[in-house]
Design brief:
Layout lengths: L1 H30 L24 E7 L4 H17 L4 E7 L4 H10 L5 E4 L4 H6 L6 E5 L5 E6 L6 H12 L2
Parallel strand pairs: 1-2, 2-3
Antiparallel strand pairs: 1-4, 4-5
């Protein structure tokens, strides 16, 4: 009788483990491109990850109404100036529905960065944004290595270390 109970428990645990493995596999497939370890995603004419192979990319999604975005722009410009020669490419994707709002923002916060416009949110949907701004650090092989939700000035040293570690590879 004891052996039968143990056998039933083992079968129950095995079934539970199989269900958990299938669930985790499906979740990984659903979100693979938006999380570290997955490939950088592309949208033709907007951001084509293959064009940046061999570079470390800081990919940032922003909007003109986003207060932390205003704070992040000078820092991203500093990153660009400091590390471009070592292989860093800062690419920003604006998500405003109206281009004029983005243009006004850029007049107040001028930068020498790659700026792309995604008013339909196609690329943002692929990356499944969880906040604003949201950024991804992509390695030289086109793999997402880090993602950051929001912009927290106190985290700049960590973000920069993550970039530096990838630039060394």
């Amino acid at each position: 009788m004891v052996h039968r109970k143990i056998d039933i428990r083992i079968k129950g645990l095995s079934l539970l483990m199989m269900i958990l493995i299938i669930y985790l596999t499906l979740m990984r497939m659903a979100f693979a491109g938006a999380f570290p370890g997955g490939p950088a995603l592309s949208e033709k004419g907007l951001f084509e990850a293959e064009h940046y192979r061999g570079k470390v990319v800081y990919l940032d999604f922003w909007a003109s109404w986003c207060t932390p975005c205003k704070e992040s722009f000078p820092w991203m410009q500093q990153l660009h100036e400091k590390y471009e020669a070592r292989g860093l490419k800062v690419v920003t994707i604006n998500l405003d529905k109206t281009r004029g709002l983005a243009d006004k923002f850029l007049l107040k916060h001028p930068v020498d960065l790659t700026v792309r416009f995604d008013p339909s949110g196609d690329l943002a949907d692929k990356y499944q944004l969880a906040g604003m701004p949201m950024s991804y650090i992509i390695d030289r092989k086109g793999i997402i290595r880090h993602r950051h939700i929001g912009y927290i000035p106190g985290m700049k040293p960590l973000y920069e270390k993550q970039i530096l570690d990838l630039l060394k590879k």
